[in-house]
Amino acid sequence: MAKFITRKLAVSPTFREIDMMGVLHNCVYFEWFERGRLQIMNDIIQFSEMQNLGIAIPVLENSCTYEEAVRYGDELLLITKHKVCEEYTGKLEFTHDLINSKTRRHHAYGKCVCGLMDMRTFRLVRQPGAEIWEKYRKII
């Protein structure tokens, strides 16, 4: 049975992130999603530990469904969930919900799939090392 690690992050657009239509530029959503992913991954294993193990976490798939425009001054809550299965499936799955903190309206939904990559060979890892999997077990 899958379990989920959930983290919440307050975000708000800066003036420079607003496009000529007066709404948040589409690339910023992915930057925020990355912050949500990194918040979870840093709780599991520090970046320096991953480097020492020779492991990277490349993005394999990334998508965003825009439901309502974000405007300058909006205060938002990014809710990121990481699906953790009993056994490693070769994929690390994350979902992102972007909600207005005041109105509770839903602005966007994102999904990201990452993998674990051996930095020596640049190939995806089929089975993570015991060090990584043990860290998952501790957090869930």
C-alpha Rg (nearest Å):
16 Å
Please name the CATH architecture: Roll
Order of helices and strands: EHHEEEEEEEH
Number of domains: 1
Gap between N and C termini: 12 Å
Number of DSSP strand runs: 8
**CATH superfamily grouping:** Hotdog Thioesterase
Shape: elongated
Explain what you see.
The chain is an alpha+beta fold. It has one domain (3-139): Thiol Ester Dehydrase, Chain A (Roll), CATH 3.10.129. The protein is built from three helices and eight strands. The protein has helices at 26-44, 47-53, 130-139, and strands at residues 3-11, 55-56, 59-66, 76-84, 92-100, 106-114, 117-118, 123-124. A five-stranded antiparallel β-sheet has the order 1-4-5-6-3, with helices on one face. The chain is elongated. The model has no long low-confidence stretch (mean pLDDT 92).
Summarize this structure as a short list of keywords or feature phrases.
alpha+beta; three-stranded antiparallel beta sheet; 8 strands; Thiol Ester Dehydrase, Chain A; about 140 residues; 3 helices
SSE inventory with pairings:
Layout: E1 3-11, H1 26-44, H2 47-53, E2 55-56, E3 59-66, E4 76-84, E5 92-100, E6 106-114, E7 117-118, E8 123-124, H3 130-139
Antiparallel strand pairs: 1-4, 2-7, 3-6, 4-5, 5-6, 7-8
Quick structural summary:
This protein has 140 residues and is an alpha+beta fold. The chain has one domain: Thiol Ester Dehydrase, Chain A.
